Amino acid sequence: MDDPRFDASPLPATYVRQSPPPLGLPALSGDLRADVAIVGGGYTGLAAALHLAERGTRVALLEGHEIGWGGSGRAFGQVVPYAKHDGWHILETFGDAAGERMIAALGAGPDVVFGLIDRYGIKCADRRVGLLFAAHSPAGRATLERRVEFQRKRGAPIELLDATATERAVGSPYYATTVLDRRGGSLTPLALVRGMGWAAKGLGVDIREHSPVRQIVRHGKAWRVVTADGAVEAGSVLVATGAYSNDLWPNLRQSFIPMRAVQLVSTPLSANVRGPILPGGQSLTDTRRLYSGVRLLDDGRLHVSADGPAFATGGSVFRGKAERRVRSLFPQIASLEWEEAWSGWVDVTTDQYPRLHELEPGLWAAMGLSGRGIAWGVLLGREVAWRMMDMARDQWFMPVTPLRRAAVRPYAAPLVGALMAYYRVLDRFEISGYVGRRNPDNR
Ligand SMILES: Cc1cc2nc3c(=O)[nH]c(=O)nc-3n(C[C@H](O)[C@H](O)[C@H](O)COP(=O)(O)OP(=O)(O)OC[C@H]3O[C@@H](n4cnc5c(N)ncnc54)[C@H](O)[C@@H]3O)c2cc1C
């Protein structure tokens, strides 16, 4: 299995063009004191930094590369109001009271993200127009029907679109059923994370880039967060290093499985070709097991989540597969050229729920976002900040759990690789039997 720590692939040019400039801050040199030290400059670390600094806490944030280097600068861009699992799975896993709190918090997640964007005037091409989620099979359709019923009971503005409305919303007759969830939206991920970085700097957070933390050690009542050329001494620490974690704390890196996710962006489509595609500006995913995201960027480029090597830094994206999918969805696209491919690593836990650990008193770790990190990462960072300041207790929703090694991690590449191969076949089989046929029985 390749290692995200040594993946030097650049941030996507597509996003760099649409984002504020990098912060360009110097590395830590010598000793610093702060109330709170944060390790990792993605959504989780920066959301914590912002919420702490807003209340006058002195924060130092150490980032190993540059702000947004990890998943936060490379994501697809959907701001989702849900977990990997449906609400009923959350209730079964966490119990009714804790589960309902989590469902409500996640439902409000996009508003928390959009609230930050408004508060700090972050320009990140955010679209607050909802998300489309389509059924790729009869089982998928049943899941969506149950999801809509479940969420509507809790007051969520979510609706099931029939075949005609689906065709209009997607711009294609490919699917027969879609859900429109008005709580979500999309944005340019790197622009958001850099915007959060600039906002944190503006509030006085002492951010040091190119400062990988090597270890965290007790120092009397405080913690020392140690880099090659210096250390931050702080009363509390948050480790928010996601899939890119190193060995700064025992077993942290072993508590999840790092998986690589790839993205493709086309050259701009002509105005008449792109006109009917996703006319409401939503991004689209479907119920298949593997990657399905599609959205149209402001400049007319088509952006898709693609399948590809899940455990290797090298290897090619499965462009042919992505192209076949796009062509069956939008046959009017006569010539499709991919302009850019990039990838990032996702910290997947064994049950695909994120983790919040208090490793020792005052030393927190928040990670394992399992590919649902824009809203959930912001919520997680905010919750750690609240816990450190002992405030907003009635809104805490994350269980604090002990750190455990993921037992399957040494075998993850062959095991998950085999599972993904099986899912590829299953997805293909289900799709060929259901969508794209314009069969009245399916619509
Ligand atoms: C291709 C892709 C598509 C995705 N699409 C979506 C999507 O559409 N919607 C969604 O909600 N989520 C999506 N995700 C998931 C989401 O991007 C992540 O869950 C989220 O960005 C994680 O944020 P984070 O702050 O926890 O970690 P990261 O953003 O990964 O940040 C961790 C940071 O810690 C730094 N670091 C690591 N070790 C150290 C150290 N020892 N010292 C100092 N710094 C260190 C890293 O350099 C990195 O910048 C996607 C992820 C990928 C990769």
Please tell me what the overall shape is: globular
| Number of beta strands | 18
For the record, the CATH architecture of the largest domain stands as 3-Layer(bba) Sandwich
Number of domains: 2
What portion of residues is helical? 25-40%
Given helix and strand content, the structural type is: alpha/beta
Distance between the termini: 43 Å
Query: Which ligands occur here?
Result: flavin-adenine dinucleotide
Strand content: 15-25%
**Parts with pLDDT < 50 across at least 5 consecutive residues:** 437-443
CATH homology-level superfamily of the largest domain: FAD/NAD(P)-binding domain
- DSSP summary: helix tally: 12
CATH secondary-structure class of the largest domain: Alpha Beta
Largest sheet: 8 strands, mixed
What is the string of SSEs from the N terminus onward?
Answer: HEHEEHHHEHEHEEHEEEEEHEEEHEEEHH
Query: Rg, please?
Result: 21 Å
CATH topology of the largest domain: FAD/NAD(P)-binding domain
Rounded mean pLDDT is 92
